[in-house]
Design brief:
Belongs to the sodium:solute symporter (SSF) (TC 2.A.21) family. It is a multi-pass membrane protein. It comes from Streptomyces venetus. The radius of gyration is 22 Å and the shape is globular. It is mainly α. The chain contains 19 helices and no strands.
Length: about 500
């Protein structure tokens, strides 16, 4: 394993070096949080694909392939569909808003007062998303070094926190681009063909496994519907995803670069399912489906290649973890802490203080420590991820898409939607169980009902607010330099 260790150590050292390099570029709030809104198509596509394809998509995607066959691709496939929908229908308008958070978008659309409550829900989602990725370090480091779970989480989490704190979005962008290349080589170009060959080819795989392993709908219609509801719609509204959209240098880059990334996700989904299916042929009696990825890598790949593929898995986990971490810190600082202190907006563009970078850097460090501690305390990745997406979809999907698509929606309707949907999801998870489908189904319906009823029962949004909103959507208004327009103004 010595060669494999060297590959991994070199990879981790490179991540820290890029964090240090990124620190020299992150001189303003815009540079630190959204890479100066300057990413071109190639880098934007690579980093967007990197953030959405994390440990759940890699280790979990192979595990679903092991358990269900080719239909195990549906979870990651719905993530790709969500990214495609976001890129084609919404990303250009989102990029033109020139904001930093989803809550700022809600304030613009509804005339203020929606930020803190929506920020709390988004913060909870990004925190749990970062936690799930951090927990996944334990699986990878266990294969590499037979390391204690807590130590593995601390080691992997500390590296992500270090480079994210140093350079913010610039460091994360640079590391994500490397991680995208490593994942492409490690998973698609090496592990996929090797796994199929070791399993005897597709003909042997079909002969060895039940026919339902090759049924595209074998995982079940209800499961597919739930994946669409949670992951496809979740891609449309997550702060971690939107913050990447904000890095695009133009709305065209956001649209077409995201489309390329979404298409890549579809290919990655199928690859994971095929690898899992091959693992089922080779190791039919594993204790857990999630062990399939680590087992096939450890047992079937040659020295050196094994290290690169494990680095690819580590890359997948780190990209999602770092993206969720900076999103969590951005929301905590800009949408919650600053608003509670009475600071609604940052200084004008071109007048950004260096202290803002220091403040955001401090919040990344604090949130990173919180993520590591929470990951040590929580043992179930699937449950943590389900809580994250249930809160996101149940609490924020309706007011965000409603604001983009329905001009009659009001701030009171948005607030009611967030509160009712969020509380419904939490209550139903406590009643039916975290992994049940009912919480997100009924929570989303409750959120929609509250939004429609309260919006229609309250005065329409002020015309001045809607006019300013349309100007920003069209890209004709500069980045806000003061607090958002409200009905009283």
């Amino acid at each position: 394993m010595a060669v494999d260790y060297l590959v991994i150590v070199a990879y981790l050292a490179g991540m820290l070096a890029m964090g240090w390099w990124g620190m020299r570029r992150a001189r303003s709030k815009s540079e630190f949080l959204v890479a100066g809104r300057r990413l071109g198509p190639a880098m934007y596509s690579g980093t967007m694909a990197a953030i959405v394809l994390g440990g759940a998509s890699t280790i979990g995607g192979v595990g679903l392939g092991y358990q269900y066959g080719l239909s195990g691709a549906w979870m990651v496939f719905t993530i790709g569909l969500g990214l495609l929908a976001l890129s084609v229908f919404f990303s250009a308008r989102i990029a033109r808003l020139k904001v930093y958070t989803v809550s700022e978008m809600l304030d613009l659309r509804y005339g203020g007062r929606a930020g803190v409550i929506s920020g709390v829900v988004m913060w909870a989602y990004t925190l749990m998303l970062a936690v799930t990725s951090t927990i996944a370090y334990a699986t990878i480091f266990d294969v590499l070094f037979d390391m204690n779970r807590t130590l593995a989480i601390v080691l992997g989490g500390s590296i992500v926190v270090a480079y994210s704190t140093l350079g913010g979005m610039w460091s994360i962008t640079l590391t994500d681009m490397v991680q995208f290349v490593v994942k492409t080589i490690g998973v698609l170009l090496l592990l996929l063909p090797i796994a199929v060959v070791k399993a005897g080819g597709f003909g042997e795989m079909k002969a060895q496994l039940p026919t339902e392993y090759f049924d595209p709908l074998g995982i079940g219609g209800e499961t597919i519907f739930t994946y669409v509801l949670i992951y496809t719609f979740g891609m449309l509204i997550g702060q971690d995803i939107w913050q990447r959209v904000f890095t695009a240098r133009s709305d065209t880059t956001a649209k077409w670069g995201g489309t390329v990334a979404g298409t890549y996700c579809l290919a990655y989904a199928l690859a994971g399912a095929v690898i899992g299916t091959a693992a089922k042929v080779l190791y039919p009696k594993l204790g857990s489906p999630d062990d399939a990825f680590a087992t096939i890598v450890k047992e079937e790949l040659p020295v050196g290649v094994r290290g690169l593929v494990l680095a690819a898995a580590l890359a997948a986990v780190m990209s999602t973890s770092s993206g969720a971490l900076i999103a969590c810190a951005t929301v905590a600082n800009n949408d919650i802490w600053s608003r509670l202190r009475g600071i609604v907006k940052a200084p004008a563009e071109g007048q950004e203080e260096h202290d803002e970078v220091k403040g955001n850097r401090l919040f990344i460090l604090i949130m990173g420590l919180a993520v590591i501690c929470t990951a040590i305390a929580i043992d179930n990745v699937v449950e943590a991820l389900t809580v994250a997406y249930n809160l996101l979809v149940g609490g924020l999907l309706v007011p965000i898409l409603g604001g983009l698509l329905w001009k009659r929606g009001t701030v009171h309707g948005a607030l009611a939607s967030v509160v009712v949907g969020g509380l419904a999801v939490i209550t139903l998870m406590a009643t039916y169980g975290i992994l049940a489908n009912e919480p997100v189904y009924y929570g989303l319906l409750a959120s929609l009902a509250a939004y429609l009823v309260v919006s229609l029962a309250t005065p329409a949004t002020d015309a001045a607010v809607l006019a300013a909103w349309r100007e920003r959507l069209a890209g004709r208004s500069p980045e806000l330099a003061s607090e958002p327009v409200t009905a009283s103004q």
